[in-house]
């Protein structure tokens, strides 16, 4: 597995804005979608292409299109929904496989409460989206579910990742690549990423 920290200036600028404690709900939501969009661009840059012929304005023209597996986007509820629009802007015909997981505040263990996966998920590449990779529990539980349903090509897009969570995901699922805007310093005693973004779900939904 490899971890890709996207150091592109637009990504770094936007993630910096998201860290401002005074950022509005509207602004945070917009930025989560925009960084999701830029991470999608990076995470799809090695997709295979094939040549095909079509009639262009001056006659037959050789063009290229994406070949191979189609994509399903997998937002982890709730906060993953904040990245979804940005991802779909680039992959508008992707199917969406929704996974509902929250992290128990005391134990930090993932609690699953919903899932509705694309029926042909075993034929697709999954792009899992969630702003935060903290202990890694939620992402590991999601990947476990996807693999149980036959999906064998999985990439994860997270806005911010903690080194502790990356290590756990790497150990559990060495075949899964992670794309992130920032590998942050560490987790605090409550399992929050430092410096992080705070509670991404609450910021996106305006619930605090
Ligand atoms: O890596 P972990 O330690 O599992 O933590 C990360 C998870 O925590 C947050 O979700 P949360 O439980 O706050 O749910 P929400 O999106 O509904 O707010 C976040 O969006 C991740 O899903
Ligand atoms: O820092 C963190 C960790 C888990 N969930 C969040 O929303 N933020
Ligand atoms: Mg939350």
UniProtKB/TrEMBL annotation:
Cofactor(s) for this UniProt protein: Mg(2+)
CDD domains recorded: PRTases_typeI
Cofactor binding note: Binds 1 Mg(2+) ion per subunit. The magnesium is bound as Mg-PRPP.
Enzyme class of the recorded protein, top EC level: transferase
Domain Phosphoribosyltransferase: 7-207
Positions annotated to bind uracil: 193, 198-200
EC number, as in UniProt: 2.4.2.9
One biological process term in Gene Ontology: UMP salvage
GO molecular function: GTP binding; magnesium ion binding; uracil phosphoribosyltransferase activity
GO cellular component: cytoplasm
Keywords, in A-Z order: Allosteric enzyme, Glycosyltransferase, GTP-binding, Magnesium, Nucleotide-binding, Transferase
Keyword check for Glycosyltransferase: yes
Domain of life the protein comes from: Bacteria
Coiled-coil regions listed in the entry: none
Homology family: Belongs to the UPRTase family.
Record's function text: Catalyzes the conversion of uracil and 5-phospho-alpha-D-ribose 1-diphosphate (PRPP) to UMP and diphosphate.
HAMAP family: Upp_B
Protein name from the UniProt record: Uracil phosphoribosyltransferase
Source organism (scientific name): Marinomonas gallaica
Phylogenetic lineage: Bacteria, Pseudomonadati, Pseudomonadota, Gammaproteobacteria, Oceanospirillales
């Amino acid at each position: 597995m490899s971890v890709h920290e996207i150091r592109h200036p637009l990504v770094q600028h936007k993630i910096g804005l998201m860290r401002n404690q005074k950022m509005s709900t509207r602004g945070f939501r917009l930025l989560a979608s925009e960084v999701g969009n830029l991470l999608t661009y990076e995470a799809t840059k090695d997709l295979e292409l094939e040549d095909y012929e079509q009639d262009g304005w001056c006659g037959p023209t050789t063009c290229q299109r994406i070949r191979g597996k189609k994509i399903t986007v997998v937002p982890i509820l709730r906060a993953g929904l904040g990245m979804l629009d940005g991802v779909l802007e680039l992959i508008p015909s992707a199917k969406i496989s929704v996974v509902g997981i929250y992290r128990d505040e005391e134990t930090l263990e993932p609690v699953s409460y919903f899932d509705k996966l694309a029926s042909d998920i075993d034929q697709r590449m999954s792009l899992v989206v969630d702003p935060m990779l903290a202990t890694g529990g939620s992402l590991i539980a999601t990947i476990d579910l996807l693999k149980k349903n036959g999906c064998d090509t999985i990439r994860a897009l997270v806005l911010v990742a903690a080194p502790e969570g990356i290590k756990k995901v790497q150990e559990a699922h060495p075949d899964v690549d992670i794309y992130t805007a920032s590998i942050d310093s560490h987790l605090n005693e409550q399992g929050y990423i430092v410096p992080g973004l705070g509670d991404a779900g609450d910021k996106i939904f305006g619930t605090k």
